[in-house]
Specification:
Number of helices: 9
Order of helices and strands: HHHEEEEEEEHEEHHEHEHEHEEEE
Strand content: 15-25%
CATH superfamily of the largest domain: von Willebrand factor, type A domain
Strand order of the largest sheet: 9-8-7-10-11-12
Distance between the termini: 22 Å
Low-confidence stretches: 5-90, 92-96, 98-105, 371-375
Structural class: alpha/beta
Number of domains: 2
CATH topology of the largest domain: Rossmann fold
Length: about 375
């Protein structure tokens, strides 16, 4: 999906996007190649107050001094080499120092959080403790790691009129999430009302992210589904394997071209993002809006939070950052034939002593098509 330039341009090609989404895959690939070729020769001039969205290769390295002094970058040095047969290819650094988690072609990658019966994070498990099922069939785990690799993250914030008095606390929580996460994360900001705007492209500069979050023009309705789908497309431009959306809204979607089912379908594409959502909902908005946020988060392996007070949002952002930094990365080569289309369900079990019950939270499945290849 086309994302408007930084805080300025609106989307006028939704109908064209829907048409393109139904074209044959081979035609779509050819179209993307032609578009990529054209982009290398004609790069739009950035707006004077911001930078234009770039490709993954243009992702700037993290700015010095943006992380708290007490937090040392967790990925300053790549992990020790592992056996390819047992651990996969592992991460490698690109020319600009960004770590890319490489996997073999046709491998499905899962990012899983494990909690015990008291909902406490469990980070001591090993590969044999896990069993992965696709369409009910056990799969052989090819790659297994517990490392705090950088993530590509989209901060997607409701900018509708009803959010005017809530934005200060929400912005504070969003910045807390960035500061509490890996300092090498690459983050962008999308503000949305009845339309959505990319107010800051990928960066690790907290000052730029703060300026984008403070670009508040509270008005109009709530196009939540459109904003989430466009943000997922923006994440796809990043070379980083792990992808996250942090979504905050206070109401029910009333302005999107997409519906809930279409939005969830897009998020469940292969290698789609994990969604963490915060719903600041009143009683009159609770039922439908809560159902939508729970479905979006649950299907992607994230969590939806519904705090009773605005003051709880900051603590929730810290919880989300801790969750992101303590995920297992598991990959497998699916035994389901590549020719078999449709949705492929995923279920992951974990068993280990001394835990009586372990719950694994990861995406519920995927639609094949966006293959993971070494880059």
């Amino acid at each position: 999906m086309y994302m408007p330039k930084l805080g300025t341009m609106r989307l006028h090609n939704r109908r064209l996007r829907k048409i393109l989404s139904r074209l044959p895959l081979t035609l779509m690939v050819g179209t993307c190649l032609v578009a990529a070729s054209a982009q290398t020769t004609q790069t739009p001039a950035p707006k004077s107050n911001s930078t234009a969205p770039g490709t993954a290769q243009q992702t700037p390295p993290p700015a010095n001094g943006t992380a708290p002094a007490s937090q040392a970058p967790a990925t300053a040095n790549p992990p020790a080499a592992q056996s390819p047969a047992d651990q996969g290819q592992g991460p490698s650094a690109t020319d600009n120092g960004t770590f890319v988690f490489k996997v073999e072609s046709r491998e499905v990658v899962l990012h899983a959080t494990v909690v015990d019966d008291r909902n406490r994070l469990v980070t001591s498990l090993v590969k044999p403790d896990f069993t992965v099922f696709e369409n009910g069939q056990p799969q052989q785990i090819r790659q297994f790691k517990l490392e705090d690799y950088p993530v590509a993250m989209g901060i997607v914030i409701d900018n509708s009129g009803s959010m005017r008095d809530k934005r200060d606390e929400v912005n504070k929580a969003a910045l807390n999430l960035v500061r509490s996460s890996n300092p090498e994360d690459q983050v962008f900001v999308v503000n949305f009302s009845d339309e959505y705007f990319l107010d800051q492209d990928f960066t690790s500069d907290v000052k730029k992210l703060q300026a984008a979050l403070e670009h508040v023009e509270s008005r109009g309705g709530t196009a939540l589904y459109d904003a989430v789908v466009a943000s997922a497309d923006q994440l796809a431009k990043s070379p980083l394997q792990r992808k996250v959306l942090f979504v905050v809204t206070d109401g029910e979607d009333d302005a999107s071209q997409e519906n809930l089912e279409e939005a969830v379908h897009r998020l469940q594409q292969e290698n789609g993002p994990v969604v963490y959502a915060i719903g600041l909902l009143g009683d009159d908005k609770a039922r439908h809006a809560k159902r939508a946020l729970e479905m979006i988060a649950d299907r992607t392996g994230g969590i939806a939070f519904f705090p009773p007070t605005l003051g709880d949002v900051d603590q929730i952002s810290t919880t989300i950052a801790h969750d992101i930094r303590n995920q297992y990365t598991i990959s497998y080569q699916p035994t389901t034939p590549k020719s078999v289309g449709g949705f492929r369900s995923i279920h992951v079990d974990a068993h280990a002593r001394p835990y009586k019950k372990l719950t694994v939270r990861t995406r519920s499945g995927y639609y094949p098509g966006q293959e993971n290849v070494a880059r």
